[in-house]
Amino acid sequence: MALAVQVKTIDPQGLLDSIYEEIDEGNIATWSYDDDGDFSHVTPDGQWEGEAWLHPTVEVNTLLLTVIPPRLGAVTAEAYAVYHGRFIEMLLAHFDTSFSEAVATARPAFGDAVE
Q: Buried-most residue among 10, 63, 74, 95 (CB within 10 A)?
């Protein structure tokens, strides 16, 4: 299965809802999401904000996150690495009991909208 970030969990919708809730409550300050539910990485200096988006898809026992680029550009290899690594880091820090495995591809995969 081609993927960007694949998170194995028995409750993918519950995990996704919990991520949104923790962002809304201010417990996760380094991620935001837009009206479509896509995630973007945010830092006080704004370095990575809007450099890419992670689009969540709920599948059976899996939360899949594929990369989409900003409207006026492409996702750089560095931004690709930061978004994947830091999203998994956030999952480990806040939701370690809610999933069993998180895997990221080294390069854009089928489904990633990277130029």
A: 63
